[in-house]
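stuck on this one:
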Amino acid sequence: MSWNYANGLSPYNNKGLLGIPERFDTPEEVEKKCAELVDWLLAAQGGVVVHTGAGISTSAGIPDFRGPKGVWTLEEKGENPVINVSFNDATPTKTHMALKALTQQGFIRYIVSQNIDGLHLKSGLSRRFLAELHGNMFVEQCNKCRRQFIRLSAATTVGQKPCGGTCRSGEIGERRFCRGGLLLDNVLDWEADLPERDLDMALMHSTLADVNITLGTTLQIIPSGNLPLKNKKHGGKIIICNLQPTKHDKKADLIISTYVDDILEKVCKRLGVEIPMYDSSEDPTRIQNAHNYEWTIPVQAVKELEMEFNAKLKEYKTERKAQAESLTEASSVMINKKRKIN
């Protein structure tokens, strides 16, 4: 359960702002804003990155952390969550399934997740579209070769501790594989280093995005909470969908305050995208021999994106140089005009 996960973390006093009152747009405002969001999705031509937080899993029965009934909000009052579904029993929400469909149809290019509940994985979303910055209860990682594998059940440890067994790379048809590596849980503790490949992919995709959309997060945890801003210096837009105010509201181009399930349902309806039901046959944690299913981000995927990222940065620098030269020329013209007037 998420409460047990939270209790498994090391003591940490600064858990951010807790229990801020939620706010709701009127139904008319939500419709208008969702229409605007769809327009930006269509104009972005696939350059859309979604950043997900604990708020997208509350309708699955998993409490968030800083909401009015969040784990840490209640902890401060000496209380525990009333509703607390086990990670093993939880199934993807309408938002998880909508994100999978939108990604498959090219409206979303990439998803950056702060969630450790494994619901993106359970939805059947491909790993090539997903960065998991804080880990995944249903993934274990070899301490030697760093390869990741699907678990059949949620890990009972957190903080990258031994969770049983040795590296399974040899069981998936690999000639050369790690010998003797221990499998560790994949869930980060406070102030642990973020997984390098996931962070690299998240940073590059966030920077390249025409539109960054945040769903169900107050953006208080860094560096993940700052990633949606990475496209702003290149003219990108940021859309925040959350019931509570966030630390980056003033920098947002659009804020939608209502339940994320409702937002995704309206967006998919306008785009003509059907939201599929959760199908256990497409859930890697429920598939026979799923424990041999690898979940590692391929090195090649990082290298390919890095090439695109560097090329785009070069393009940005060229554009900025041209803009600077244009501004210098314009300034010179203005000075000359003033001289003539004088």
Summary: The CA atoms of residues 38 and 270 lie 7 Å apart. The chain has eight helices and ten strands.
